[in-house]
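Archive entry. Fields below.
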Amino acid sequence: MNALNNPALAWRVQRTTTSSTIGLSLLGLSLLVLFSAPFWADRASLRLVVEFAYYLALAQMWNLLAGYAGMVSVGQQAFVGLGGYLLFMLASQFGVPPLFAVLLSGVLVALLAIPTALIVFRLRGAYFAIGTWVVAEVFRLGLAQMSSLGGGSGQSLPAAIVRQIGNDRDGRETLIYFTALAIAIAAVAVVFFLLSSRQGLALASIRDSEPASGSLGVDTFRTKLMVYVLAAGCTGVVGALIFLQKLRISPDAAFNLQDWTAVVIFIVIIGGIGTLEGPLIGTLIYFALRGCLAQYGAVYMIILGVVAVVMMLKAPQGVWGLINERLGWQVFPMQRKLSARD
Amino acid sequence: MSNQKSLLSIEKLCAGYGDFQALFDISLTLEQGETVAIIGSNGAGKSTFLRSLAGLIKNQPGAVTFKGQAIGDLAANQVLERGIALVPEGRKLFPSLSVEENLLIGAYSKRPGPWTLARIYQLFPVLEKLRKRPGTALSGGQQQMVAIGRGLMANPHLLLCDEISLGLAPTTIKDIYAALPSIKADGTTVILVEQDINQALSVCDRFYCFQEGRVSLTGRPGDADKAQIKAAYFGI
Amino acid sequence: MEWLNTLLQGMLLGGLYAMFAVGLSLMFGIMRLVNIAHGDFIVLASYLALMVVNHLGFSPLASLLVVVPLMFCFGYLLQRLLLNRTLGTDILPPLLVTFGLSIIVQNLLLEFFSADSQKLSQGDLEVASVGFGGLNVGVMPLIVFASALLIIAGLQLLFYKTSVGRAFRATSDDQRTARLMGVNNAHIFGWAMALAMAVVSIAGVFLAIRTSFDPTVGPARLLYGFEAVIIGGLGSLWGTLAGGVILGVAQALGAKIDPGWQILAGHLVFLLILVVRPRGLFPRSVD
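PREDICTED_STRUCTURE:
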């Protein structure tokens, strides 16, 4: 008599653990604190939280692509920049209300990502990565040629549009603050629900072995396309928000590899690739490092790079990966554990 | 038994792939100049054994002693330098290299000895005509000849042959085995892994039978009877 | 006639791009390694040449005598001490480590040399030109193209006529079986990277003579080299030369239409070829 043929035992899949309950509660508490922040925090701190929020969202998306779908992209800055430019176009040339324009930009970026995917999917592995970079460069150079969008030096958001966001500076900053938080929470939620779904299982199987999952009936091309477009769209929304806050856009700022890709990649590597908690931890570590080293200028990029390289060699699972291995903690109830119902 | 030290001594060799253990405490010895056959069904661990000897699978240093030295933990290229060459299962010729280049790379380690390109062509005359062809653009039997020649070019003390008759027609197999006496004539010791029991027993001095990762029978071809071998082979 | 001139300029520029690409081709062919820091190493070589020129008083071309051996050794050590650890079945480690290296090198150069534009001057040779058939061709571009031809011919010789070359090709086919022949993979990979860095350093010096450079121009060079490899087709060095030439011509024609279109034209031609001929124009049939 064993587990397989004992009719008295029934099985259920358990997702939550003690640590995830604690972790989620802590997260919820932090969110409550953050929601109240505009009433007691200073402007600089609010801006810091906004920046944290958009790096977290970008990191979740890059992690979704690379850590879960096995697609390493060094060209996500394409979608950041596109999101920013589409926002400016929609708001100033089509009169779309700014916040709605942020969302619409994301949708449009997602649509633009489809033909992009059809081209870059012809490449694999590291060549795919560089291909995405070429695409980003094409967007950057192409947009720099369009004088209606400010050409090489870019453009500022017209004052009338700025006032649409809010009548005074504090009002605008508060609106952008809450939008940023909403986007970050949405990004995490999107990844969480995707991975918990059937599609998530398909993704995991593709990451482990594309041919094997294909032979089991997983439509690898469609799944990868869906994830790529989803990540692009969300990245576009973040890009739109970033430049809505900056009030100014230029090709070099919009498609900057170091700002939108290098930092994001380092965040995910250090935090823990392939985990939901990793990008969160990574973003925290990044801001801590930046705070300590900002005074040294470009050196902090060198240190960040060295830390990332060392992590990749010695602890490729990242900081959260190490914590998870040693202590078995999880914050988001992701694991599927089989337990007996008695 | 002779009182000189064995050429090769395996002691309690365990090997596997990840979580899967393929060999359990294999022990055997080999004398200079012997031809030993290892027979057994699919999955018995024969190829794993040869790969462990060749250094493709890492073991405890003391598990494999060759010419008095512990080599169990050496990498494949170091094992070759000590004088053990593997003719791998499936031939594994290099597609980017011509037949002649495949033979030449066998001599990469520049070990001294009687085997040269000319002698390989003497042993397998058909290869000389095909020498400029890409290594994999040959028939199975011809590829096997190249693979054996490639192994010989390293002038090994010990030649390991992994299923050289696999996928070949009976006449081709006979042709290839006909080359064995020339190989042995120089004193090269040979370990043959074979699924074809008759072929293996007809050329070997001694044999070992593997069954599910263990030695189930050993002896001289003349001593063991068919029933015994069948039992040891299938484990029934 | 002007268009013919443009075509010729593009072809010669292609020689430089082919040089960028050869290193990438080598590394990928033998080790399946794509080095994202490739372009930054080209720029590193340019800065090394700058230091040699400034501190030792050599001419830029003469600085090759110092820069090439230095980068050769650097490549071997880089591979054996760092990059060999990243090689395996997972594509993430080599990609991310070389990406990290790219950022590190760029910022190190920024710290040591500042963001100022630099250029190496080869004096009269830079502006000298030869005329034939009504066309005016610069001597430097001719030298660069000829060097690209020599490098590729030399590498072909190495690969097909020497024992080490056989080992390279065998390792590129089947690493495991190559080890059975006595090939020490770690060592061979070191040599491959050393060779790639030697070619990179030649390209870096020529780049520095041809145009101004600063710490941030590396990535663009990686992209050109990568595009030349893909256009030409994986696995063939002469194909890589063809890829470089096509890219160079595309850029030259683009520049002729409008200076701002130079680089964009190259990228667009690359994407077009990727869509129409994903395996490149002259791929090796075996792979």
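CURATOR_NOTE: Residues 84 and 158 of chain B are 5 Å apart (CA to CA).
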